[in-house]
Design brief:
mainly beta; 287 residues; elongated; three-stranded parallel beta sheet
Length: 287
C-alpha cells in the first residue's frame, strides 16, 4: 500500500481512481476548492486527515477512515460506496452518508439528512444530530447511540436498536420490522403508521405515540407523559407505568397499571384495555 503523509490537496479529483493508498495526517483543503478527491477509488485508508472540500468519497470500495474530520464544508462526503469502516471521526457536513454500507464506531455526527437509502449499517458508541436521519434505510444495527433531531428513522426496514437514547419527533413513521431494546425514546408522535415494531424494556416519553400502527408490541415498557396513545392501532402492550389517556385502539390488548382517561368513541375500536385493580377511570364518548 502506498503511503502519503502530511500532504495537502485542493485540486479537482486530486487522487481520483486511486488503488491501495494510505493517507496519514493529510488535508483536503485550499484555494483551488476542488471536488471529488478520492472518487472511484478502492482499498483506501484515511487516517488523521482533514476533509474540508466536497464529495471526497464517492463510488469507493474498501475504505477505512479513522481519527479524521469532515467539516461543514465537506458536503455529501460518502455516497454510493461500500465496505466502509469509520472510527473516531467527526462527520459534520450535510448529507454525509447516502446509499452506502458501513460500520460507524465512536463518531460525532452533525449532519442534516444523514444516512438516506443506506443498507447494512452498523453504528455504535456514537452521538448524532440530524434531521430526517436514516430515511428509507434497511438492515440497521445500532447500539449505544445517542441521537437528537427531527423526523428520524422514517420508512426504515429491518432494524435493531439496543441501549440507545433518542430525543426525536415523528420517529419510525412507516417503519417495518423494527426492534428496540433497553432504550429511551423521547418525542411526540412516535411510530405512526409503523408495521412490526417491537419495544422491549424501553422508556417512551411524549404525546400521542403509536397511532395507526400494525403488529405493534410493547414488552415491559414505561410510558411517561403519554396521552392519546394507540389510536387506531393493532397492539399487544404490557406497560409498567400509568398512562394519561388511551384512545380507540383498533384491536389487541393493552395492560396498564392505571390510566386517567379512556376514549372509545369509534365503533371500529375493539382493543381491550386491562387496568390494575381499584383504578378510577373516565370513559369519554365525545369526539
Amino acid at each position: 500500500m502506498k503511503m502519503i503523509e502530511g500532504q495537502t490537496f485542493d485540486e479537482e479529483r486530486a487522487l481520483y481512481g486511486s488503488r491501495g493508498v494510505h493517507l496519514k495526517g493529510c488535508a483536503f483543503d485550499g484555494p483551488a476548492d476542488g471536488e471529488s478527491a478520492l472518487k472511484e477509488s478502492s482499498n483506501i485508508v484515511v487516517e488523521n486527515t482533514f476533509c474540508n472540500l466536497r464529495y471526497p468519497f464517492w463510488h469507493d470500495h474498501g475504505l477505512v477512515i479513522s481519527d479524521s474530520e469532515m467539516t461543514e464544508l465537506c458536503r455529501a462526503a460518502l455516497w454510493y460506496s461500500d465496505n466502509i469502516r469509520i472510527t473516531g471521526t467527526k462527520m459534520h457536513g450535510i448529507k454525509a452518508l447516502r446509499e452506502c454500507s458501513a460500520v460507524v464506531d465512536n463518531c460525532d455526527i452533525l449532519s442534516p439528512e444523514f444516512g438516506w437509502s443506506v443498507r447494512n449499517i452498523e453504528m455504535k458508541n456514537t452521538k448524532a444530530e440530524s434531521e430526517y436521519f436514516m430515511m428509507r434505510s434497511e438492515n440497521l444495527r445500532f447500539s449505544d447511540v445517542e441521537f437528537k433531531g427531527k423526523y428520524s428513522f422514517q420508512y426504515i426496514r429491518d432494524a435493531v436498536f439496543e441501549n440507545c437514547k433518542f430525543d426525536t419527533k415523528d420517529a419510525f413513521w412507516h417503519g417495518k420490522n423494527i426492534t428496540v431494546r433497553d432504550s429511551v425514546v423521547k418525542g411526540e408522535y412516535l411510530a405512526w403508521y409503523s408495521d412490526g415494531l417491537t419495544l422491549i424494556n424501553c422508556k417512551i416519553i411524549g404525546t400521542q405515540p403509536f397511532c395507526y400502527c400494525r403488529n405493534l408490541k410493547l414488552i415491559n415498557c414505561e410510558m411517561i407523559d403519554t396521552d392519546l396513545c394507540f389510536e387506531k392501532s393493532e397492539v399487544e402492550a404490557e406497560v409498567t407505568t400509568p398512562v394519561l389517556s388511551i384512545k380507540n385502539p383498533r384491536s389487541g390488548w393493552i395492560r396498564v397499571p392505571a390510566v386517567d382517561e379512556i376514549i372509545m368513541d369509534d365503533k371500529e375500536a375493539k382493543g381491550q384495555i386491562l387496568i390494575g385493580e381499584n383504578v378510577q377511570k373516565k370513559v369519554c364518548s365525545c369526539a
